Amino acid sequence: MSGSNTARGRPEVAVLGIGTMGDAMARNIAAAGLGLRVWNRRRAAAEPLTEVGAVVCDTAAEACRGAKVVLTILANERVVSEVMDQARDGLDRDAVWLQCCTVSPEGSLRLGEQADGLGVGFVEAPVLGTREPAVAGTLTILAAASHMCAGERVQPVLDAVGTRTVWLDHIGQPSSLKLAYNAWVLTTVEGIAESLTLADALGVDPHQLINVISGSALDSKYVQSKGPKMISDDLDTPSFPLEAAAKDAALITESAHGAGLRLGIAEVVRDRLQSAATHGQGRADVAATYRLSRRAA
């Protein structure tokens, strides 16, 4: 690629949404030497980014002025759509919208249509990974572009926040793959929670379960990280907030229904996560589903 810092080579980037993921991604964008403008509904959450050179803006439109890439990492499709509509007056005619929020495949198509109406390019780019890989800049990105040059123009941003980008052919496919991936993640978390609860209820130290899984064919980093945190109840600093997991679980089952499927395990996991959120665990880590399992036990 070639061009100035405001063209293809090193684009000015606007990040809309400074939560756990947005903050980490914004810091890595700044560390890569890209210009950074940020906006968040609660300005105080964005203010710490001034220490890495970010310009903190009062409106989404202000954040987008001069930016060649607009990255959205917000709560859900409705919020993303509303914020981008509010940003309309600040969008550069050459900008590309890099949409990283997890939405349904149909939702991504709707956002792509909105991008057409706004006159900007569109790259669908949900990410795989939680807070730790976001901070480390080692996310995996699932991506599809409205046109090839849109994909080329966001590549410096993708390189800043992740170590692997999987390009797919059509808008909607990255969201489909993300939901299939998250179905496995959430099933794994609920499986660990219930297995630990069962071991404890049967009079076995739950640590022994983690020990016998370690090194087996079913072992994983996820088991070894989430399991001990469940046992020690170290669940109030979220890597993946339970309320976000509950949202994704609902998207998974809704998309499955749209495809004519009923996924038995996914529906149970959705119900468990929604119940945990109702019982005050929404802002805890997704592994706080273990608290619900223990309460039921």
Task: Summarize the structure in words.
It is built from 13 helices and 9 strands. It is an alpha/beta fold and 297 residues long. It has 2 domains: 13-171, NAD(P)-binding Rossmann-like Domain (Rossmann fold, 3-Layer(aba) Sandwich), CATH 3.40.50; 176-296, Orthogonal Bundle (N-(1-d-carboxylethyl)-l-norvaline Dehydrogenase, domain 2). Strands 1, 2, 3, 4, 5, 6, 7, 8 and 9 form a 9-stranded mixed β-sheet that branches.
Could you give the topology of this structure?
Elements: E1 13-16, H1 20-31, E2 36-39, H2 43-46, E3 55-56, H3 60-64, E4 69-72, H4 77-86, E5 96-99, H5 105-118, E6 121-124, E7 127-128, H6 131-136, E8 139-145, H7 148-161, E9 162-167, H8 173-201, H9 206-213, H10 221-232, H11 242-258, H12 264-281, H13 289-296
Parallel strand pairs: 1-2, 1-4, 2-3, 4-5, 5-6, 8-9
Antiparallel strand pairs: 6-8, 7-8
CATH topology of the largest domain, by name, is Rossmann fold
Strand content: 5-15%
In whole angstroms, the N-to-C terminal distance is 58 Å
Number of helices: 13
Query: What is the radius of gyration computed over CA atoms, rounded to a whole number of angstroms?
Result: 20 Å
Morphology = globular
Q: Please identify the structural class as seen in this structure.
A: alpha/beta
Count of distinct structural domains: 2
Q: How is the main sheet built?
A: 9 strands, mixed
Query: What is the averaged pLDDT score?
Result: 96
